[in-house]
């Protein structure tokens, strides 16, 4: 079993990665921004002792030296799983609020590992389908996206609006990580996860209705009756269950053949219309409060996807949208929906 540093441990994806690591018997230290966050994680896993779950404070991942001390441990770390990065559109300065924290956070931790943690042999980073997908090319009917693709966004395009800034932050941060590996030749390998929309159960002790991850907010809004007139457009029409993504992170660290690769971790297509229909199936009393129009899959066609690498190398068997909705509804209701 490995000793693992997991960054951003209270985040939606990270807490599922943490759960998956603990289930596999690994020993985890997770970075948090405050002692309050650490206590919330302890409360989420009350039966896990300090020898299996411990914490290190990193209050600002955008500082270049943020992880210099966090990567030091006794016993020393063998793996680092880096999930900490901003994902929200409450942005006033795209460069300062999105680009810098993502890029500096990623390169900063790689520099810290190289300098202070020679025992680390494997690093897994959470990137995004945003680093693969080219928004300016639209739905690209007939084109197949895979790990070979890179978002061609420029810094000039990035500062135009927060969604472009988010996509650019993921693209630039991941590119900087691969660039670091090539130039610095560190003692560790790099593996990158590139998920699209991430849905799934939340941990009620760690999230509120207001702090839900961006993808899950549409499920919350439907449960609250906020889409009674029309279901909103889906955005990107490919998705993954957070539990499958978490397992993919762990297997990426565990498996030799995963080293040095990107993984487009997706279960396939979905639409907000399907989510609404599945919610109505589970909670029929919402009929009339969840619109029966809108949110359909694009009728002018859509790009195709290749997730064969994730299935073959990581052995992920993806959950269905229906099962995800069934499991997610009670957890969002537990925080007030």
Description:
By secondary structure, this protein is of the alpha/beta class. Helix 1 crosses helix 7. The longest helix has 23 residues. The chain is globular. The mean pLDDT is 95.
Quick overview:
Helices cover 36% and strands 13% of the residues. The strands form 3 sheets. It has a 7-stranded parallel beta sheet with strand order 3-2-1-4-5-7-10, with helices on both faces. A 3-stranded mixed beta sheet has the order 8-9-11. The chain has a two-stranded parallel ribbon with strand order 6-12.
Largest sheet: 7 strands, parallel
What order do the SSEs take from the amino end to the carboxyl end, as H and E? EHEHEEHEEHHEEHEHEEHEHH
Shape: globular
Outline the low-pLDDT stretches: none
Q: What is the rounded Rg?
A: 19 Å
How widely separated are the two ends? 39 Å
Oligomer: single chain
Q: What's the mean pLDDT score? A: 95
Strand order of the largest sheet: 3-2-1-4-5-7-10
- The helix tally amounts to 10
Tell me the β content: 5-15%
Number of strands: 12
What class do helices, strands and sheet pairing give? alpha/beta
Can you give the helix content as a percent range? 25-40%
């Amino acid at each position: 079993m490995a000793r693992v540093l997991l960054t951003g441990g209270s985040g939606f994806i990270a807490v599922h990665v943490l759960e998956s690591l603990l289930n596999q018997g690994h020993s985890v230290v997770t970075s948090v921004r405050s002692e309050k966050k650490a206590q919330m994680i302890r409360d989420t896993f009350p039966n896990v002792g300090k020898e299996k779950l411990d914490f290190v404070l990193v209050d600002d991942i955008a500082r270049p030296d943020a992880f210099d001390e966090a990567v030091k441990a006794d016993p020393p770390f063998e793996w680092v799983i880096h999930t900490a990065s901003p994902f929200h559109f409450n942005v006033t300065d795209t460069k300062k609020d999105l680009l810098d924290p993502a890029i500096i956070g990623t390169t900063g931790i790689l520099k810290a590992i190289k300098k202070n943690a020679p025992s680390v042999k494997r690093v897994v980073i959470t990137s995004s389908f945003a680093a693969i997908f080219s928004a300016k090319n639209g739905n690209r009917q007939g084109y197949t996206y895979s790990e070979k693709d890179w978002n061609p966004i420029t810094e000039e395009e990035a500062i135009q609006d927060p969604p472009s800034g988010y996509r650019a932050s993921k693209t630039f941060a991941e590119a900087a990580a691969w660039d670091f590996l090539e130039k610095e030749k560190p003692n560790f390998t790099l593996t990158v996860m590139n998920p699209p929309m991430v849905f799934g159960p939340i941990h009620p002790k760690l999230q509120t209705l207001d702090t839900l991850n961006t993808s899950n907010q549409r499920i919350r809004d439907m449960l609250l009756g906020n889409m009674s007139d029309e279901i909103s457009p889906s955005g990107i029409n490919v998705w993954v269950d957070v539990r499958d993504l978490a397992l993919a992170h762990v297997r990426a660290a565990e498996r030799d053949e995963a080293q040095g690769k990107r993984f487009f971790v997706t279960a396939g297509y979905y639409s907000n219309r399907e989510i609404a229909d599945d919610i109505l199936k589970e909670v029929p009393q919402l009929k009339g409060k969840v619109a029966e129009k809108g949110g359909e899959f694009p009728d002018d066609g859509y790009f195709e996807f290749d997730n064969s690498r994730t299935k073959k190398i990581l052995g992920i068997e993806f959950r269905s949208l229906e099962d995800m909705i069934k499991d997610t509804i009670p957890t969002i209701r537990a925080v007030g929906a």
